Amino acid sequence: MSKTAGEIGKTILTVLGAIGIVAVAVMAPNMIQIFGKSGRYTNSQYKRSLSSLKNKKLVAIKKSKGKLHIQLTRRGHKQLAYNNIYNIRLKKESKWDKKWRVIIFDIPVSHNKARDELTYLLKELGFKMLQKSAWVCPWSCETEVEQITSVFQIDDFVKIILANKIPDSQKLEKYFRVT
User: Fold this and answer.
1) Please, are residues 156 and 111 in contact by the beta-carbon 8 Å criterion?
2) What is the helix, strand, coil percentage profile of the chain, to 5?
3) What residues pair up with 149 in beta bridges, in sequence order?
4) How far is C-alpha 126 from the geometric centre of its chain's CA atoms?
5) CB-CB contact of 88 with 140 (8 Å)
6) 51-77 burial, b if ≥16 CB within 10 A, otherwise e?
7) How far apart are CA 155 and CA 142, in angstroms?
8) pTM above the 0.85 mark?
9) How large is the average pLDDT for residues 9-23?
């Protein structure tokens, strides 16, 4: 799938995730109005991308009473959740609550890819590595970490510890610019 087709597919998945189901007249002259980003992509690009999503079993398309009914499949919902975790950002509060969030994990070798993705995302979110499978940050992150671990199905292997003190906290306070 080309980069453009991937972008269109993500747009379609996002719209379907937000509204649930779309009913389009079979002879819809303008899919662009439904999925947005007017002028950026053509109708034929949307149709090709929709066909690709159907082939990958990410969307279900049914014809009924002169309309196409398009909705996400279970697999489509999983793909949308996977796409969305790469857009997660932590809210960095202006006043620190003096608590450290320590993420620890012991993920089996059978889940290597999930472990790699988790560590990548922790770095992207601004965590600092304490040890190979222990990461820390001063901001609330429980919801975001739970979203990530849920998507990769590694919830049972990841723990979040709320700590008042940790070794080298002065260095960490300086690193995160909190006091």
Assistant:
1) no
2) 45, 20, 30
3) none
4) 16
5) no
6) ebbeeeebbbeeeeeeebebbbbeebe
7) 12
8) no
9) 80
Ordered DSSP codes for 38-65: TTTS-HHHHHHHHHHHHHTTSEEEEEET
Type of residue found at 80: L
Q: Which residues contact 90 (CB under 8 A, 6 or more apart)?
A: 125, 126, 137, 139, 140, 141, 144
- The values of phi and psi at residue 100, to 5°, are -100, 140
| Interior angle at CA 129, CA 116 and CA 150, nearest 5 | 45
Long-range contacts of 74-77 (CB under 8 A, 24+ apart): 76/13, 76/16, 77/17
**CATH numbers and ranges of domains, the chain:** 3-85 (1.10.10.10), 100-176 (3.30.70.240)
pLDDT tens-digit map of 25-80: 554 555 555 665 556 777 788 888 888 999 999 999 888 887 878 889 999 988 99
Cα separation, 5 vs 43, in Å, equals 12
Tokens of 68: 């196409």
Residue holding tokens 């990958």?
A: 56
**Measured at the alpha carbon of residue 165, what is the angle toward residues 97 and 99, in degrees to the nearest 5?**
20
